[in-house]
Amino acid sequence: MLERPMYVEKIMRYVDTPFVKVLTGVRRCGKSTILNMIMERLRNERGIPDDRIVSCRFDSMEYEDMTVREMYQVLKGRLAESGRTYLFLDEVQEIAGWEKAVNSLASDYDVDLYVTGSNSRMMSSEISTYLTGRYVAFRIYTLSFAEYLAFKKQYATLEERHAELANYIRLGGFPATHLREYSQDEVYTIVRDIYNSTVFSDIVRRNQIRKVDQLERVVKYAFSNVGNAFSAKSVSDYLKAEHRALDNETVYSYLEKLEKAYLLHRCSRYDLRGKEILKTQEKFYLADTALRYSVLGYSADTVAAALENVVYLELCRRGYTVYVGKQTAGEIDFVAVRQNEKLYVQVTQRIESEKTEKREYERLLEIRDNYPKYVLCADEFAGGNYQGIKTMHVADFLLTAEY
After folding, report:
1. Are residues 377 and 394 in contact, defined by beta-carbon separation less than 8 angstroms?
2. Residue 277 forms beta bridges with which residues?
3. Alpha carbons 163 and 117: distance in angstroms, whole number
4. How far apart are CA 169 and CA 380, in angstroms?
5. Measuring CA to CA, how many Å separate 76 from each of 80, 81, 91, 94, 326?
6. Which of 243, 293, 310, 367 is deepest in the core (most CB within 10 A)?
């Protein structure tokens, strides 16, 4: 079991606090394994005996058709006779109304609670209904580039980091695909299974969607347009041109469901002049680059968008809220905000002409504040500074320890 200290250390800080620790993220991103790591830490570092550590995985057949009242009674019956019980509830969203049971257990007994989930019932708006002020949420992502290197090092010789970035973009970061050496086709088979189970279990079945082909067309449009600004209307217009009529509201609903299943991340535009968040022409990024390639196939001309996707996810891992920066004359790829910190980031596959260089740097030079500004690219000779703007290879930026 390879450690993921980026998450474990953060969660351990909340052990024995009155907050329910809620881990969310796309299917198979490693939430269950992180729970196991927390349990091991409790045993080995804090001396908690096994009878005070209780673990239940609610997507097991053992709990199929269980009601929330039955859930409460089962967990109540497994509490330790003396001392605090540490409850680890995996895929808890499988039980309708789970929040009520968790809230009651937290109120009535000496427990320390950890729960995971991977669909819309685990979104903050749902949780806060019953756990207002009583939970702390941790978003779990697929492997970062640094984690990918650590995983791969266990079973293969690492290439030079810039070459490994190309492998990481192509193969993605789902932990299950990096436990041993798999071929590209084997990786995409595994990821396609994750995609199918998410779409059909967390979206189609739960929302009783009948026109699955319409949903899949919206998925493929979104996957094909990673990093491009689009709206429900632009998707609807595209499908209409393909003689597949779909109204704007339905498209919007599908995009929202994909977001709630953690397959898509919505990135809003931020007007740098007016200092306001705009609700039009948003961008969407994938939970993992391998999702696109497993569904649509790999092609070299998509690498630029994938680089952007990888940088977006890395900024999110580091705790930034990320926007697309809108300027009068163009856009900044990312404006990343974290408390009173801010970063501006431009991502480009390569700076191959003066025109490209001018475009990437001039947009950043128009911003008159003193927050850090980066141009990230995949050029072999990327590096240095240009009028205070730092130029870095994407791989080097991803490996900058800043969690």
Report:
1. yes
2. 270
3. 34
4. 16
5. 9, 11, 18, 18, 53
6. 310
Least confident of 12-26, 123-137, 329-343: 123-137
**355 confidence band (pLDDT: 50, 70, 90):** low
Distance CA(141)–CA(287), nearest Å, equals 7
Ranges in the chain annotated CATH 3.40.50.300: 5-139
Integer Cα distance of 347 and 33 in angstroms: 32
Q: How far apart are CA 348 and CA 93, in angstroms?
A: 39
The two tokens of residue 195 are 């995609």
Helix (H, G, I), strand (E, B) or coil at 385: strand
Q: Rounded to an integer, what distance in angstroms lies between the CA atom of residue 403 and that of residue 130?
A: 30
Residue 179: the pLDDT is 94
Nearest 10 degrees: CA dihedral of 352, 311, 326, 140? 170
- Give residue 354's pLDDT band: very low, low, confident or very high (50, 70, 90): low
- Return d(Cα 102, Cα 20) in angstroms, integer: 8
- The pLDDT assigned to 384 comes to 79
List strand residue ranges (DSSP E) for 194-330, in order: 264-271, 276-286, 321-326
Give the distance, in angstroms, between the CA of residue 125 and the centroid of all CA atoms in the same chain: 17
Count of CB atoms within 10 A of residue 65's CB?
A: 7
The two tokens of residue 12 are: 């351990």
Residue 140 dihedral angles phi and psi, to the nearest 5°: -100, 135
Q: What is the pTM of this model?
A: 0.94
**Long-range contacts of 48-55, Cβ-Cβ distance < 8 Å, separation of 24 or more:** 48/86, 51/80, 52/80, 52/83, 52/84, 52/85, 52/86, 53/85, 53/86, 53/88, 54/78, 54/79, 54/85, 54/86, 54/87, 54/88, 55/88, 55/90
Judged on CB neighbours under 10 Å (0-12, 13-18, 19+), 47 is: exposed
Query: Chain centroid to CA 190: how far?
Result: 18
Q: Which fold has domain 5-139?
A: Rossmann fold (3.40.50)
What's phi and psi for 107, nearest 5 deg?
-85, -35
